[in-house]
Amino acid sequence: MGHWLQRNIVEPGKLPLLLALTAFVLTFLLTRLITRLIRAGKGPFGNVKAGGLHIHHVVPGVVLTVIGGFGAIATGAHGAGVGAGVSAVCFGVGAGLVLDEFALILHLDDVYWSEEGRKSVEVVVLTAALVGLVLLGYSPLGVDDLSHDEVAGRGVALSTIVINFLLSLVSLAKGKPRTALFGAVVPTVALIGALRLARPTSPWARRFYTHRPRTRARAQRRAEAHDRRWSRLRRTMEELLGGKPNPSSR
């Protein structure tokens, strides 16, 4: 475990990223726990107010994100010292607080416990998943003392990165942003997203399916079946992580 951590996390300069991701996830989970306790009227917590003004936690989140971001720049992108670690943690905590209220920023309204507030949970999950994939991914250019086989594999790795990027662009054009995000790191996901039918409202469908009514109809049926299959599971997971929206907001 120690050798893997040194070679795949520390040596490629990913330790600050690991610290930031850990701080990001823990901050989001702790924040959601506290806000759900406040909502239920339990525990010693309460809303922060100053002069009658409700201070949302996105405010300290922005401050910490700025401090962490500028601190990371000051210590260098691949810093491994205490300064880099502190900056990474500050950035992770700040990003967790900000993205927990992503829906508030998007709508410019307090929609935290409304149906629109689900966007915050979705963005946090996507961000954590993507950063986790990047963290665990192979870094062919960041490791020293490579063997002959590893040196030979660098060209293959770089080619794979380029191909993944192009396939992810196709997935994005087909109206599949989540597949595009994960496909940028996982080759199989990128390939599947690029080969499958586009969603009927996507730029790809408008460009290539306009004069192909059968293909457009198949794309519509597939999109509806996909939404029916996964929307309930996604809703359950969002409620488990972020709490149920207010009944009046549905």
TrEMBL record:
Membrane-spanning segments: 15-34, 55-74, 80-99, 120-139, 151-173, 180-198
Keywords recorded for this protein, A-Z: Membrane, Transmembrane, Transmembrane helix
Superkingdom of this protein's organism: Bacteria
Protein name: Integral membrane protein
Organism (species): Streptomyces roseirectus
Lineage: Bacteria, Bacillati, Actinomycetota, Actinomycetes, Kitasatosporales
